[in-house]
Structures are given as structure tokens and as C-alpha cells.
Amino acid sequence: MDESKKDLNPEQDDFEAWLKQHDAQRAAEKAAEEEQYRQKIQQAKAAAMEEERRRKAAEQQRRQQQSAAARPAAGPRPTNDDEGGIPISRREVVRNFHVDIDENALRETSDQEEPQRKDKAIYFANHQRSHGAAVQSRQAAAAEQRKRKEEQKRLNEQRKKEQKQIRSLKRILAACIIVLCSGLLSLYVISCLNDVLALGRSNELVTVSIEKGADSEAIIDALGDSGLIKHKWFCKMFTNFRSFNEKKYLNGVYYLTADMGVEGMLNSMRENQMSDETIRLYFPEGWTIQQMVEKLDKNKVCPKEYIYTALREVTFENSFIENLPTDGSRYFNLEGYLFPDTYDFFVSDKEHGIGENPNSIVRKLLKNFESKWTEIYDKRAKELGLTQDQIIIIASIIQKEAANQEQMSAISSVIHNRLNNPASYPTLGCDSTKNYVTNYLTQAIGSAAASAYISTYDTNGTHSGLPAGPICNPGTDAIEAALNPDDTNYYYFCHNNKGKIYLAKTYDEFQRNWTQVLKDNEESTDE
What we know:
The chain starts with a helix and ends with a helix. It has 19 helices and six strands. It is mostly helical. The strands form three sheets. A two-stranded antiparallel ribbon has the order 1-2. Strands 3-4 form a two-stranded antiparallel ribbon. The relative contact order is 0.06.
């Protein structure tokens, strides 16, 4: 490929500059070609005129020679030509002059001439072409330029289209990322809120132990560790906003479910609980823990299994509890200390879960007992040489054995007299101690488990002295009777069906009293 064709394919970035340079060069070449063409025309005209002049000169000379040959030697010189001697006019010769130029011959002559390249400028093979060929070349260059412009335009449009598609893809990708992030964030927020709303959460019971003095944040940590909530930080932020951190909470063991929500769980542990409905319940003197728990469960204050768990596993902070035995001889270590009285309890509802948490219930009854036990009681127990726990055990037996308040001091004297004479009276001989196991513990823990406590409670059998623990929760009258027994010599007592008491100093007298009891009972049956 020659240099002219190479120059028709420049780099795109220099196309415009190259085109301007090419146009300038073509204009210069065109002017040079036209100038050369004019010079050739002029040269051709001059050559033709010279040829015509020479021809006419030769013709004239020939005519003159002919004329001289035909003219007489002495005759005058002719002044005319072949036309009969008419004088030849120079003006007429010029007027009749014409030149025939063969352009094809000129082109052939031009094509045979090789242009001299004196510099390193760009030349084209057709630089010697005629004006028409130059126009055709310019038109071809313009067409090539238009073609390249169109190609460049097409490439630019394609590039813009590709860039637009890329921008569109970027927008779509960004939108997808935003939607995905928004969806994930929404799911996370919903999950956080569901710790409060508890929608669709499990109702499976989970045991949670709360330490003494725990605040709302410590409790939330425990709830999170137990799997009841999923987002501790959100629950802490929410409860702080709702001022739960300002409330007091009761330590203990709690049975909770995830569907209670964090508010319901915290409310169940509050010292001052939340509920729209309360109930007033009365626990008579002499009721056992089992009887109290059944009543609380029946009135929807708290499920009984929650209370039993609290009684077994929670360490309450009352000072007298430290003196109670922990050897396992008692099933309910707090039997005798849940003071029988009238209480107000919260009732369970859908919003707040259980009515009142079991720890609160037990604390309420223990606190009442603590308020009833006075320093006077303490002083009198020490005078008798007995501990607080021993007084409560005696009071519980009195409460179960006495038919009324008037009999309590007399029965107390029988118990004290026997305790003071263990050699003669190793056992108390009270049926109520065995009945505690067979009638109450059996219902609470089953007959198999309860049978293990017969040997530690049955004072009418082989167990000597006081039973392992109280057999009920005595009232104030029974406690005072235990502290202040009558001064008697009675060692036996029995009742008929109507509650009449028969006291005896000796076993023979007791046997006669027992015969009378059977007779009274037979008569009451006949009636």
C-alpha cells in the first residue's frame, strides 16, 4: 500500500487534524496543478502560434519563390498573393488564427512525467490528474470522511448505549441492595419488637433464676441466656425507656414462657406487680402449704407448680430462715411459717401473664409471720429453753389437735409435760403428726415419696420427741398457747366426735376416757 492510502487511515483521535492538513495539502496541490495546466496551455498555444507563423512564413516564402520564377526579370515586384495580387492584411491573418489542443494528448504527456519530490510532504498517486479527477478524489475523501464520522457516531452511540445500560444495571443493583438491606433491617426490627410483642413465640415453660438485688438489665441478661428473648440490647433500651430500671424485682426461681413478652416477664418479678384484677383470699389457721397452694392455683393467682418450685429452690431473706434445718428431713422447709391470714393477690390475665409471681406470694406470707413473731415471743421461748422453730412445731400440733381456742393451753401442757419427761414418755402420741404425711404430703408429692417422711413425723409410733417440722401453719392463738401452757399434770388427752376433750394424768385414766369417747361417738351416731 502506498503512502497516500496509508494516510487515509489515521488514528481516530487525530482524524480531524489530519483532515484539515489533508484539505490544505489538496488545496495546494490543486492550485499547483491548475497553474501547471495553465502553463501547459500557454506553452501549447505559443508552440501552435510559432508553428503557424513558421508555416505561413514558409508558405509565403514558397509563394514568393514561385512568384519570382514566373515574373519577368525586369518587371515590377508583385504585391499580391494567390488571390490575384490582393495585398495580404496582417490583421486578417491574426483574426483567422485558431489553435486546436488535444487534451487527451496532454494527459498522456502528463501521466508520463514523474513529479519530483523535493521534501517529505505527502503526495498522492493522482496528483497530476485533471481538475475533474481532483474533484472526484475530494468527493471520495469527503465520502470517506462522512463514512468515518458516521462510524464514529455509531461507535459513540453504541458506547453511550452501553454506558446507559451499565448505569441502568448499577441503578438496578443499587436498588436491589437497598431493598435487600431494607428487608433485612425490617426483619431485624420486627424480631426486636417481637421480644416485646411476643407474637408467635413459644409457650414452653423455661426456668429462670434471678439473683438477689438484680436490676432490669441483669434480669434481661438472664432472660436472653435462657432463650426467652433474642435481642438483649433492644430490650434494655425499651425497658429503660419504659422506666423498668426504676422498679424493684424479687429474686427467686421463675417459670416463664417466651409468649409473655419481656414486659410480662419483668412484671411477674416486680415487687409491686401489675394487674387489672385482684382477689382477697383467707387462709384459716392450721392449713398446710399444700392446702394454701391449691387455693392460690384454683383462684388463678399463680400455678401451683411455680409456688412449689419457689418453696423448694428459693432462698428467702428472712432472718429466722437461717435457723431452720437443711438436712432434708422436711419436705417443705417453710411449713409452719406461711402465716394464715387474709391476703390480697393479683389475678392472672392475658396482658400480664400470671397474676402474682410465686416468690412474691411466699414473701408476703413470710413477712406477715415475721411481723407476728414479737420480741416477747422470743424472750418467752428462751425461758422455756426452746427455739423459735420448736415453738412453731408445738404450736402446729396444738392447732391440729385442739377443737377450739379454749383447749389449746391444756393440750400445750400435755405436750410440754411429755417433752419434759422423755424417759417415761418418749413419744408425744399425737395422731395429727402421722396424718400430716398421709393426708397432705401424699397429695403434694405422691404416696411413694411421702412414705419416706413417716419415720420422721409419726409421733404416735416410734419417733421420739418433736416431729421433724411443723405439720401446719399455726395462728397466733396456737403460738401463744405453745409459749404459755397450763400448769397441769396431764399426759394424755382425747376427743369425741363433737370435739369434747378428755384429759388424763395416767394411762389407766386415759383408757377410761377413751371408752367414754367411743360411747359418746356411738350415741352421736344414733342421733
